[in-house]
Amino acid sequence: MFTLAQAAVQAVRAMCWLGILAALLAVPLVAHDRRWLLDSVHDAAAAAAHGNDLFLHFCLGLGAIVVLLVLCLVFLRHLLRLLDSAAREQPFTHANAQRLQRMAWLMLAMELLSILIGAYAAWMGPDFTWMEVGGGMSITGLVAVLMLFVLARVFAVGAAMRDDLDGLV
User: Fold this and answer.
1) Which pLDDT band, with edges at 50, 70 and 90, does 51 fall under?
2) Comparing C-alpha atoms, which of 133, 125, 155 is closest to residue 18?
3) How far apart are CA 88 and CA 60, in angstroms?
4) 3-state class (DSSP) for residue 16
5) pTM of this structure
6) How far is CA 55 from the centre of its chain?
7) What gap in Å lies between CA 103 and CA 138, rounded to an integer?
8) Percent with pLDDT over 70 in the chain
9) How far is CA 163 from CA 88, 94, 152, 166, in A?
10) How far, CA to CA in Å, does 19 sit from each of 8, 55, 70, 91, 123?
11) How far is CA 38 from the centre of its chain?
12) Which of 84, 98, 115, 128 is disulfide-compatible with 124, CB 3.0–4.6 A?
């Protein structure tokens, strides 16, 4: 069970790294030949509004996506450590409670950043919907944040109960 979950997390980590690599490679490629960027904007109003700053907006959009992917990598690192601990049959530890709380904060940051990216893409115009990796605000993402904060508290109480039990034995 945990092996499959760990493999899935590793696969998502690989996709995050590929996304970061693609974003970092895209900047010099587009800087070299900006016609690709200009040709991708079909909305004349958006092209007129952002024409001179199009490359800057492209870089800002990619930069925000890279930050989102880095936050995801940190989140996944905590998740892997949580899975490792659970595989060793020691899930209710103070370290895991802290991990879950950090994961909740990271998920909240990712949700807020997704909202900002979505708003930025909407402001830029219809040709910039590629920036909306997270799709803007997500009710399921916000529920996941709440669930992670609750689980962090449950794990903290479980760790305290385990400490009390260890003290009795």
Assistant:
1) low
2) 133
3) 42
4) helix
5) 0.85
6) 24
7) 17
8) 83
9) 17, 10, 16, 5
10) 17, 19, 10, 31, 23
11) 29
12) 128
Amino acid in position 43: D
* Eight-state DSSP code of residue 112: H
Tokens representing 49 are 């509004």
Summarised one tens digit per residue, pLDDT across range 97-155 is 999 999 999 999 999 998 888 888 877 777 677 666 656 678 898 999 999 999 999 99
The amino acid present at 44, given as its one-letter code, is: A
pLDDT value at 16 more than 60: yes
- Rounded to an integer, the average pLDDT of 22-38 is 84
| Whole-number Å distance between alpha carbons of 107 and 101 | 10
pLDDT score of 71:
98
The larger pLDDT score, comparing residue 16 to residue 32, is at 16
Question: Which long-range contacts link 40-49 to residues 24+ away (Cβ below 8 Å)?
Answer: 40/127, 41/125, 41/127, 42/127, 43/125, 43/126, 43/127, 45/125, 46/124, 46/125, 46/126, 46/127, 46/128, 49/125
What is the rounded CA–CA span in Å between residue 11 and residue 24? 20
pLDDT at 132: 65
- The token duo for 125 is 């115009």
The C-alpha atoms of residue 91 and residue 168 are separated, in whole angstroms, by 20
Alpha-carbon distance 105 to 125, whole Å? 30
